[in-house]
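Exam revision sheet. Question 4 asks you to relate a sequence to its structure. Input first:
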Amino acid sequence: MRGLATLTLILSALGAARAQERPWTVSASQAVRYDSNVFRAERGTPTDSDVASITSLDGRLRAQLGRQQAYLGAGVSAHRYRDNDQLDFTGNTLETGVNWATVERLSGTLRYAQNRGLAVYGTAGAPQINDRILERTQLGEATVRFGITSRSALLGSVAHRRVDYSEAAYQDREYRQNVASLGYQYGVERALTLGVGARHTRDHTPRYDEPTPGSFVANRGTRRDVDFTLLWQPSGLSTVSARISATRQRYTQATEADFSGATGSLRWEYRPTGRLSLSTQLERDTGAEARFADFSGTDPELSVESRRLVNSAQLEARYELTGKTRLNARVRHARTKLSDGTGTTGHDNTNIYGLGIEYNPTRTVLLGCEAGQENRSTASPLSYAYRATTAQCLVRLTLD
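Answer key, structure tokens:
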């Protein structure tokens, strides 16, 4: 405790003494987390509750090189469980990239992000294992924009996605995806922008089935989307972004996940008062698209099998009680389509709630606590119901 207090004073003094904005940020945090159902066991069966200590260190570098902006962020975290010490692990995150532009009409981005952490337990159809399962998620992407006029542009992008697990029991859930898109955009910045484009995705699950030990059958998939996008800023207090797509998805083995129809998302950021900000999001897409929609190396809150179709709604609210104290609230509902190779279908519904408070006693110190609950219900034999209550408190020290 004395060492932590000393570190707090040092960081506070250094932060107050800074003469100008530094091109780097370093933060250290200590959290304690309680989970009433660590392995997301089915309702009516014994559950394992536990308390985990999470010690994290994160850093970020920024550099301006003429018209180019480069950044590098990395973090490491040690997770230690009081009772289920077989789950102890060290996680890490990484995000790096370049935002580039030429004197004329070309601009774009290069980015790589990865996360290594504990897999989310309770995924429908996954084996229930009371042991450590680590998930590694990677994303590499490049985008380019060619300005035709001050209001119109051609857009292109390519991306590679990859998800791997540490346990052989999850090998049929590992996948790689290659994505390419080309589109056209027209509009006025900070007002209304419309876009249309085509997107093609190739999906590969190398160890989808193992008919004999050591012999694997791969599942390959293709997805084609025609995307229509909108970005609308009716005022400085409100921003609406939307995408609706005509989607066709086909697989060589997992044909029960074949799909043709509409997918898309809608997000509304609104600040009705100086103290209150709201964020609303509606989404209909597969688990893989939801996982990588805004991926920056963070852990997933809800795990869904990559090929399953999910309809979700989320509301987040943030209220400034004082200049140093904030209240946060969030609610999320997800309805997942279930199917297997025998023609059996169904749905499950997951609700996630959270309420928290944050306090900044100084510019460099953050104290926070959050309580939450996660419930899943279903009438399908392809999933099961569970309930989990969580609580977490942390202290974070930041120097920038």
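Marking note for examiners. Residues 2-16 form the longest helix (15 residues).
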